[in-house]
Amino acid sequence: MKVLFVCTGNTCRSPLAEKILQDLRPDIDVRSAGTRAITGERVSEKSKQILLQMGLDSDHQAKKVTQTDIDWANEIYVMTKAHLIELKNLFPKASNKIKLVTMDETDIPDPYGGSIEQYEITYYELKSAISERFL
Asked: Which is the catalytic residue, given 25, 29, 110, 133?
């Protein structure tokens, strides 16, 4: 199985999701990207702190989502309803494989610019959503 996580900048939520799923399910091929990412940008410092605190690999470079990414993935999970709409509009042929990461269809808020506690909350929200979907 090939899973793609998508957020806005690919420096906070989707890299956290990617690393969480890689840790929980090493048998799944996982990548992440952003709708407005600047390719090559590093993971945010607070995301890096959280990943290190949880014992996960924090090496990540942002990339903008492309048609190649969409074609590669069997399943695509986004963080918000706005991402869902945007990706389905950008890649209409892939609409059936684009879903919200949360089963209850709530958004995962962007912690960018927030406190380390907000990043920790985001980590646990993502871990819960990913565990529900993949375990």
From this structure: 110
